[in-house]
Amino acid sequence: MDDGDEYAKLIRRMNSPRVVIDNDASEHATIIKVDTVNRHGTLLEVVQVLTDLNLVITKAYISRDGVWFMDVLYVTGNDGSKVEDESVLNYIQKVLEADANVFNSIGSSIGVLHSSKEHTSIELSGGDRPGLLSEVSAVLADMGCNVVNAEIWTHNARVAAVMHITEQSTGTAIEDPKRLSLIKKLLRNVLKGNGNFRSPRICISSPEETHTGRRLHQMMFAARDFEKLEGVKENSLGPYVNVSDCADRDYTVVTVRCIDRPKLLFDTVFALTDMQYEVFHGTFITGRKEAYQEYYIRHVDGLPISSEAERQRVTECLEAAIKRRASEVLLQVFYFCHVFQTMISRSHILLQGLELEMCTDDRFGLLSDITRILRESGVSIRRAEISTEDGKAKDTFFVTDVSGNPVDPKIVRLIQQQVGHTVLRVRGKANVPPESPKETPRSSLFGTLFRCRSFQNFGLIKSYT
């Protein structure tokens, strides 16, 4: 539906979004039902609101009937409990029931790295290598820049980062054009250190508000991280993605099976939306650490995928979107267990990646110091989330050794001795091998979704008609 079409705007005003939040129908989750006029990106916006509130989506059922969009989502808090906080529930209702034109302005304010006169934004992407974040942090520290917020992703020998910096002396944005030009030049020299990647991209500015997750996905996609670099060995294990035809209904069917993790649904839905595909019907189900997704899609021009090249590109881009936020170690462990689960005892505990969380008083050069210690200890940072608030620094690092394998516990203990056990905490998780969820037969699932406008066959909504 064209946002510039006055008739479309009238239809939206006459059919404002309807949101029902139910805490009684399910024993283990809060059910959120959204019924609204569909437009491109509606599904992504709904998922984004819930994801940015750090809510976990355990199940979702999606259907589009003509221009009408219906979505039923089961959500919990990070602890697995229902969402009981009235302020959170009221906020969800307010945002999701907002007019489509208001939605963007409200929704974009969640989980974003804001632009303001208080900081300068840096976006950088290029080839990844061990110790790169340490080098970038050292350059910024040498230039008298303080990193107040940042998020860094790595995948397939590429890196993308969104960082917010301030003047160390004033705590405000850097405005001197000559200084900004020098910072950009120095950072470019650092990123050029990896010769097997084309020219790195560095942008220093104060852009409009940008959702961090969306921006990082776009930067990685622009760096073509879905393509294998020559001479770079990438882990062949990963999510299972299948793209096939549904000729009788004139759809393309996308099926995804992978390890479950936070923000998984957002990442897959964003990839489809950003590639200009509409989800007409779909399901998302999690169980025992694995997630199953199935989507019936068409391109925004109304046509299904028609060529093998396009089918391959969608497969590769979805795989990349899922892997960017996931630890390679975690993927290796999961798929080893998945393939050989009959050979492994269910009581066998396996390490699923390592997360280091640092929480301490903020000071100038802190990020440079901690990343230097990790680099000198032979630890490679695969993903990082940096934040400061009220004089406190809270940094999270997802790490492996330089070969992509689990970090030796002895090295972790040595790092903790240098930094302080109360400052740096290890949050690696141990889990039993996961059990695959039972797949719903495609014909049965599609038939149900296609026939019922309001999921009444699922027993979730009685009727909207």
Report on this model:
With 465 residues, the chain is an alpha+beta fold. The protein is 32% helix and 31% strand. The protein has 13 helices and 20 strands. It has helices at 6-14, 42-52, 86-96, 100-107, 132-142, 177-191, 212-222, 264-274, 308-323, 328-340, 366-376, 409-419, 442-451; strands at 18-22, 30-37, 56-65, 68-76, 112-113, 120-127, 145-155, 158-167, 201-205, 210-211, 240-246, 251-259, 277-287, 290-299, 350-351, 354-361, 379-389, 392-401, 424-426, 430-431. The chain has an eight-stranded antiparallel beta sheet with strand order 1-2-4-3-13-14-12-11, with helices on both faces. Strand 1 (18-22) and strand 2 (30-37) form a beta hairpin. The chain starts with 5 loop residues before the first helix and ends in a 14-residue tail after the last helix. Residues 100-115, 329-352 and 429-465 have low confidence and may be disordered.
- As residue ranges, the low-confidence spans are 100-115, 329-352, 429-465
Which band does the percent of strand residues land in? 25-35%
- Can you count the helices? 13
| Spatial separation of the terminal alpha carbons | 22 Å
| Rg computed from alpha carbons, rounded to a whole number of angstroms | 23 Å
Count of distinct strands:
20
Structural class, please?
Answer: alpha+beta
Helix percent reads: 25-40%
Average predicted confidence as pLDDT: 81
Widest beta sheet: strand line-up: 1-2-4-3-13-14-12-11
Q: Major beta sheet, specifics?
A: 8 strands, antiparallel
What spatial form do the alpha-carbon principal axes imply?
globular
